[in-house]
Amino acid sequence: MGRAGVYLHIPFCVARCSYCDFATTRYRCDFAERYVRAVVREIESFPLDVPREIDSLYFGGGTPSTLDPRQIGRLIAAVRARFRLLADAEVTMEIDPATADRNRLCAYRQLGINRASVGAQTFDDEELARLKRAHKAADTIALVADLRATGFAEINLDLIAGLPRQTLAVWQRNLDCAIELRPEHMSLYLLEVHERTPLARQILRGTVPAPDEDLAAQMYAVMIERLEEAGYEHYEISNFCLPGHRARHNMKYWTGAPVYGFGCAAHSFDGKRRRWANERAAERYVRMIEEEGRAVVETVELDEEAARAETLFLGLRLMNGFDLKTYAARFGRNVLRDRAAEIARLRDAGLIELEGDRLRLTSKGAVLSNEVFVALI
Fold it and tell me: What are phi and psi of 200, to 5 degrees?
């Protein structure tokens, strides 16, 4: 079990993107202050009988950069008071290009934020408008420059492939723009259409075309080829980095390390078998904290079978796969024997491969990872 991490969910956004299924709400100054107080209270009341040494802190959302530095400082202070945040900890904040100027970035950096995750999504202004994003491509480029000028040495860019009406040529230009900015890390996702989002309703009405899965697969293949040519390591299904710049916090999810989440919709894992989740709606979360001191609405104790399936699923998300000996030592089971028929079919199809004691996806398997996971799990 690796060192623990802490996740803080900040739900506020200046606009709701058409594809978004995250727990978000419109930013309101008075409610934001109540929300910060609630999260601080939740952190302060967190049990002490858990590993307290943490080497990653992640502000996710929503748009954490809607909060002013004073509020971010209060949250960091609460984490430091309850946990031991190591001196070399990775401290990440998701930043929207429409919400941060250089003065604010300087203040965030002085508070100890040392990694920025920029929600670029695309460098095509027409696509940004269709997604209801509040920024333009030029804002992303300017933000990266400001991050460098204010001392951020670790930057991630988020991009989405397979957007409605997106062509392969536009996706290639997106990759070229991102590579030119030379971020240390990139998270490149294939579009998923979630129920109850504006995008899902638009597709249902026929005003927006449904995603083209064949085209998305081409985009994924181009993405891998282009980024690897540019010196990026493809280390997880959707994540690439320059050597030595893997996302420490994200690795905790894929390797089963403890992560303690605070704020609405935050999920936690004790690194063993217990998972728990907070109330999703921001206002209801705040009321629960104010009235009861806690907002946990679901707790799950993984049984042996669920723990094995989860370990296999998360381990296979990493492109170097997972170690079969470690799995056998933990569970007393042999994956190759337990899933012999499924593994044989997937190997014959060129979707997974076995090298020494490691089972992993091929590049083709990464494109069809959902099908692989269904077959194995």
Answer: -60, -40
